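Entry for the shared binder. Reason: the reviewer on the internal report wants the predicted structure included alongside the sequence.
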Amino acid sequence: MTDCTLIGILDDGWAGLADAARQRLRAAAVVVGAGRTLELVRPHLTAGTECRDMDGALARVPEWLRAARAERRPAVVLATGDPLCHGLGAWLAGKLDAPPEILPNVSTLQLACARWREPWDDVVIASCHGRDAGEWTPGATPAHGLYAALRAIALHPRVFLFTGPENTPARLARALLAAGYGSDEIRLSVACRLQLPDERLFAGLPLEEAARTDFPQPNVALVRRWEGEDTAPAFGLDDDEYRQRTPEKGLITKQEARAVSLAKLRIGPGATVWDIGAGSGSVGLEAARLAPRGHVWAIEKSAADAANARANAARRRQTNYTLFDGKAPQHLDAWPDPDAVFIGGSGGELAALIHLILARLKPGGRLVMNFVTLENLATATAALAEAAVAWDVVQLQASRSQPILDMHRMAALNPVWIVTACQPGKTDEKP
């Protein structure tokens, strides 16, 4: 018999355990689990069995198991449902020299979907069973407890969620409403107190109703989002699809320059992107769409332009985009190191900003800058030469057709210099 066993248990306790799991528990000298799960098995344990409550002491569990193993005392760890489904299994295996044997139970995912009569083979699993981060608000960073759940919902039509005492289904529903979703797009099903006499099920609730419901604990949730609501391309949206400053419209990186700049940034799906001088947010928001598993950190000094960028983010439900008010380098020291940086405006601090970014840019990362004045172009190339970083410049001169009587003429846009610098790293490719 193994000296350490990880056993899955549900709230029906001893009655829901297989004979093999019961035998391991009766033979155990040490049983580790949350206080609630320990109480489910305590009456069935052998006299003298040591019970260790891991509530608030999860980090000590490997230490307890190593001590039990050294003393040749059989140990059992209790976990909810299937320990390999967002449970202790993978974490515990990485902390011990020899991983424990695992005797799984039915996962709460399987049980809840059976109750709802919903297939679960195509669901994506996420968790917000973490620390309390408060209510979600637009622009929240990846540190928020609901961030991973909101990104999973944005990318997948059916998401099963392990909830927590603070990050409840009601809070999740309020977050989805704040992100711009409506009940015509998303419905929430919640299973509460599974396997207990007062088990309760809620199926297909509108977000507004779910947001004000006090669901019994513990619970799990299934989010169903109707596919097809977002048909916009990842990048290359028309300029007039963005809210811009009025009455003098036009503080936006034009579509042609935006497309080339995004191509030069070479943004990967999980990239961390900085957008300096966000303006209307067009570059940063399209970068966020190109990095669905990443995040965009943006900054804009104009309150009016920042308001427009936030409105554009809300319209696109871009939950992986955070905009700060201020002028770079303010706030940048708290941002994670970037894979790609776009500078659309520098507020007169261009040379210092370039050196700061190059010091933070990850190996293989790219810095792309747009300029319409010769002076800024000269400042940028001088700073890059001083830093001994490879760079190139593309001059983009685009013209757009305009009607004139019953014909068309070409109207030139302002020429733009697109400067690209590469941080030495994984590849030797040129900008």
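Summary line for the report: The mean pLDDT is 92.
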